[in-house]
Amino acid sequence: MNYLEEYYSTYDEEGRLLSRHGQVEYLTTMKYIHECLAGFPEPAVLEVGAGTGRYSVTLAKQGYRVTAVELIPHNLELLRSKLDGSEPLTAIQGNALDLSALPDDAYDLTMLLGPMYHLYTREDKVKAFSEAVRVTRRGGYILTAYCMNEPTVIQYVFGLNHLHEVMGLNMLTADWHCVSEPKDLFELVRTEEIASLDAEFPVERIKLVATDGATNYKREYIDAMDDDTFSKWMEYHFTICERQDLIGASHHTLDIVRKI
Question: pLDDT tens for residues 131-176?
């Protein structure tokens, strides 16, 4: 079992997205998914790295035709356990780096809401994005989620007093970019790296969204909110989540591009 399989076999990712603070990322992502789907009468949806199906299963239960590709057997088993057989969802095991089992130009919306978290070289990121572009129809959307560099520096390196540890392990570059490898589980990026990747493909940027924005900096406060206060927090969050001056400080971002 590799690092990724071991992590997802024990970590409750479903619980994270269902928590109050995790709901911010989930609700924001779903908002933009539905905005993209609104332009197609009968959209075909692909999620690469579908995890336990938080997005794929929800969309299928809403009536969308979904293909879910997931690498980790444990996650795939949990995803399938949520289906009663009536949903228009096909779930298969597969790798974001090789979608050769799927045809060209087949999907109106392709989502990579997890794979870029765990790809550590530019070569692999280019390959995964290339596959997503290939299987997406012209005019279709590709939604890609990323983990951002600066929140980790602020909260983990300084906030949790790990500065000397990470410096001793040479996990920081001279310009304060975190250096990750598979045992660290998550790859962290900056906005300019996302733009550089997009520039290699026939796509146009529609939006870059901060899916959780300031939420994780105040996680305990968010989790303690009552329903009315949380509703106001979401209202505030939606007014600032597209502000480009704040994007890099979000723990997670969603890059929305259209294939041209």
Answer: 999 999 999 999 999 999 999 999 999 999 999 999 999 999 999 9
Distance between CA atoms of residues 162 and 255, nearest Å: 30
User: How far is Cα 125 from Cα 96, in angstroms, rounded to an integer?
Assistant: 9
51 near 25, Cβ under 8 Å? no
How many separate helices (H) and strands (E) can be counted in the chain? 11, 8
Helix (H, G, I), strand (E, B) or coil at 175: coil
201-236: pLDDT as tens digits: 999 999 999 999 999 999 999 999 999 999 999 999
Give strand pairing partners of 253: 146, 210
- Contact call for residues 142 and 105 (beta carbons, < 8 A): no
At residue 203, φ and ψ (nearest 5 deg) are -135, 160
User: How far is 223 from 92, CA to CA, in rounded Å?
Assistant: 34
pTM: 0.93
What are the tens digits of pLDDT across the range 128-139? 999 999 999 999
- Residue closest to 115 by CA, chosen among 129, 101, 102, 130: 129
Question: 15-54: per-residue pLDDT in tens?
Answer: 666 789 999 999 999 999 999 999 899 999 999 999 999 9
Partners of 91 in the β-ladder: 68
Domains of the chain: 3-259 (3.40.50.150)
The CA distance from 194 to 150, in Å, is 14
In terms of Cα–Cα distance, which of 72, 63, 18, 15 is closest to 43? 63
Contact 181, 111 (CB under 8 A): no
